[in-house]
């Protein structure tokens, strides 16, 4: 499951989100996201908008990853994130879940959801993975 976590974290990075080839490799053709805002996005929206995303000083802190195998080729990851603006402000605490599907040799994200949550204490990024 470490590979899925690596890919999840890669999607938090500006250089990944703006690279069309990487987006197509990491996101399933049927990708759907329900974002922190409650808005829904599909792969075509991501391919139209993400390559134009402006860089930001905000870094996404992620922690408490858990892998929930749903079958041999489907895994749901759950974890928490918070935005760090680099000067001590921690905001946008979010519980997240992603469904990853094995397509041939690739693991691709089929679904992602971010739900606002109460603030939580930050721990080290990705320090441990647990599986159900």
UniProtKB/TrEMBL annotation:
This is Nuclear transport factor 2 family protein. InterPro entries: DUF4440, NTF2-like_dom_sf. It comes from Vibrio ulleungensis. Residues 5-109 form the DUF4440 domain. It holds the Pfam family DUF4440.
